[in-house]
Design brief:
The chain is an alpha/beta fold and 239 residues long. The protein has one domain: Rossmann fold. The protein is 23% helix and 26% strand. The protein contains 6 helices and 12 strands. The longest helix is centred in the C-terminal third of the chain and has 15 residues. It starts with 9 loop residues before the first strand and ends in a 22-residue tail after the last helix. Bound molecules: glutamine (GLN). Glutamine binds next to helix 5. Pfam families: SNO.
């Protein structure tokens, strides 16, 4: 049996094609378990990191720039194998399906068995903050996470039992009710429809780094097509 030593630190990349990547980089600087932080624009940079954050911004633009710069297929491969967290536009890109996409559709990296509704809360001026209790992250409802929503998507459908709901909206917002799911996890993938990098609260960044380390220790990092359903995750040959 192969034991994988628990890494004390990992390197985290932030996709830096468009959007709020600088804010994520800044936030990661406050986390001791992050050894290096890399703005990612090339396939080579992607190969050198343990985990990736896809920031908020404009999902159609990020997809277009990624395609034109030739990194799209590498990104697709990365998110299937390695810990990745998508915030807002990043969550849209990690979804298997999206509503309200532009004519001609939108390219998605996929990986999360969810369907998202883009711009569910309206335009930029409809941005809002909501205090969320996220049991895996906030210690009690009295110490909620200040979630910032900007032209945010919501999760309209969850298509797999492997998708774990981490957070629901705390109150009704327009046509969206308080049971709307705004943060999920599935295996090595994490997604939030809000922007933790725009707060002074690094708890979700810390959570992602711990989650990535656990995933690496579990030996699944970089191994493709692992199905937890049929319990074959321990059958890989030791390398
Ligand atoms: N803040 C954001 O990332 C907004 C996401 C944007 N509305 C999109 O569809 O991609």
């Amino acid at each position: 049996m192969n034991f994988i030593e628990r890494p004390k630190q990992i390197s985290v990349g932030v996709l830096a094609l468009q959007g709020a990547f600088q804010e994520h980089i800044h936030m990661l600087q406050s986390i001791p378990k992050v050894s290096s932080i890399l703005p990612v624009r090339t396939a080579e940079q992607l190969r050198s990191i343990d985990a990736l954050i896809i920031p908020g911004g404009e999902s159609t633009t990020i997809a277009l720039v990624a395609e034109h710069s030739g990194i799209w297929e590498n990104l697709k491969e990365f998110v299937r194998q390695k810990p990745t967290w998508g915030t807002c536009a990043g969550m849209i890109l990690l979804a298997n399906e999206a509503n309200n996409t532009k004519k001609g559709g939108q390219k998605l990296l996929g990986g999360l068995d969810i369907k998202v509704n883009r711009n569910q809360f309206g335009s930029q001026i409809d941005s809002f903050e909501s205090l969320l209790h996220i049991p895996q992250i906030t210690s009690s409802p009295e110490d909620p996470f200040p979630a910032v929503f900007i032209r945010a998507p919501t999760i309209s459908t969850i298509n797999s039992l492997e998708v774990e709901i981490l957070a629901k909206l705390g109150h009704n917002v327009d046509e969206t009710d308080a049971s709307t799911v705004v943060a999920v996890k599935q295996g090595h993938l994490l997604a939030t429809s809000f922007h933790p990098e725009l707060t002074n609260d690094n708890r979700i960044h810390k959570y992602f780094v711990e989650h990535a380390i656990n995933y690496i220790v579990s030996g699944q990092n970089g191994k493709k097509e692992i199905s937890l359903k049929d319990g074959n995750q321990n059958t890989q040959k030791p390398t």
